[in-house]
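This section describes the prediction task in plain terms. A model, or a person checking by hand, is given the sequence of a single protein chain and must write out its three-dimensional structure as a string of tokens. No templates, partner chains or ligands are provided. The sample shown here is typical of the held-out split.
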Amino acid sequence: MTEHTNRQFSADLEAVRSQFLEMGGIVETMIQDAVEALQTGDLALVERVRDHEREVNRHEVEIDERIGLLIARHQPTAVDLRTLLSVSKMLTDMERCGDEAEKIAKVARRLHEANSLYEPVVELRHMGKGVSLMIRDMLDSFARHDPMQAAAVVRSDREVDKEWKAALRHMVTYMIEDPRGISKSIELVFIARALERIGDHAKNMAERVIYLVRGDDVRHTGLKYTERAARGELAEEPLGGGLGVPAATAAPDAAPEN
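The expected answer:
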């Protein structure tokens, strides 16, 4: 590529990164607003989440188009191609986080419209704050190219999973003790499940950050392997020109940790 083309490519690549970060910031706000609407019944927050969901969809389409054009026009080298492929994969997870936030907001509306005296059967604000923080930390790790922070996000998903299971046990117990609350409890199960899924998507994106920075695909390899990859401790460079295939001698742990 000529110097001019290089400068244009760099500018376009940075525009993709910046727009993805903007999209992620909107999704983080959506999660916070949806959980707050559940607690307070503020229907203005529900409408704001719905408006933001349309904005997130627009960002997804625009970024996808930009990535396609960059690959077609510039035929980027391995490192830049890895960045574009990573963002392309992360886009799907980020958009789905927005979808889950919208689901939470819709359930919050139903709960509060059906019962003006609604009180939550189980406290979900802490879980909501946890997954919102995972999104924020993942975006920060992406912006700073920090694989260690990304690995910490992967580890955080364990706590979210524990909270999901605890919330489910709590709500099942409540339904057994008071069958009149079954309908409300089922709605809260849907919300807790949506929050757990947001945590999963944040974990997926954090794994992509590690791939982007280190070139190691850590999906389905377990937490120990993920943290070793983040620290750059794998024995050999990845095969396949640094496009994310783990080294042949750096096998995952025999019993991967989820």
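For orientation: DSSP finds eight helices and no strands in the chain.
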